[in-house]
Amino acid sequence: MKKSFFTLSLAGIFVLASFLLISCGPSLVETRGKLYPKMYDYAPASIVIMPPINQTNTVEAADYLHTSLAVPLMERGYYVFSPNLSMELLQAESAADAERFIDSKSLTPFVNVFGADAVLFTKITKWNKHSVLSRIEVEIEYILKSTKDASTLFNRKVDLVLDQSQTISGGGLLGLLGNMAVTALTEKITVARKANIFVLNDLPSGKYRSDFGKDQEVKAYTQHLSHVTVK
Predict the structure, then answer these.
(1) Res 166: pLDDT
(2) Whose CA, among 46, 131, 137, 153, lies 20 to 30 Å from 177?
(3) pTM of the model
(4) Residue 118 half-sphere exposure toward CB, CA atoms < 13 A
């Protein structure tokens, strides 16, 4: 497949930044170079996104997470194979089951099929909604592995809370019901996008960014984050 890269416009940066307004969260504690040395040693350029491993009862959560991973990865400077096209190829090769490969010592099928440098696995271990239309708690783990030797290049687990509390004014009962319907349709993709942007923002820059190989001293969050609240 021919490789290309994603150029993010100023407007796109603003949109992504607006997704993540952290009201409280962890501190930047370590450098990217110390946390993720293999990212610099292996320098992957292309990534295949595997379907998430969903260990919750929220079945649709996997689809929302899967479809919202590509943009933040591309913004970090990586070539990302289209999740939809990748799924078709993986299914054709009987390789769409992420649980089959996540602990495998060989990821050569992804080299043979895609020519990919790395594979991103995700696990959804919690997706709970508390109180009507106001709070969603999710726990997601991100694991990026090299196709060369199945080494883990990047690993991050986040326990994130999406605070959707808002003041509803006007419209009476119909306005309230309409707001509830819209929120129900958008809340899952919103929390998936915010979690992905928050976590992958710490990913060392890829080959399609000008700061590739130059961000080892940039501060990053710890690998396991708890009680991160976003609005």
Answers:
(1) 53
(2) 137
(3) 0.81
(4) 26
DSSP the chain: -----PPPPHHHHHHHHHH--EEE-PPP-EEHHHH-HHHHHH---EEEEPPPEE-SS-TTHHHHHHHTSHHHHHHTT-EE--HHHHHHHHHHTT---HHHHTT-S--HHHHHHH--SEEEEEEEEEEEEETTTTEEEEEEEEEEEETTT--EEEEEEEEEEEE------SSHHHHHHHHHHHHHHHHHHHHHHHHHHHHHTTSPP-TTSTTTT--TTSEE--SEEEEEEE-
**Cα 183 to Cα 135: distance, rounded to the nearest angstrom:** 12
Quick: pLDDT tens for 196-223. Answer: 998 999 999 999 999 999 999 999 988 8
pLDDT value, residue 230: 75
Strand partners, 178: none
CA distance 19 to 192: 11
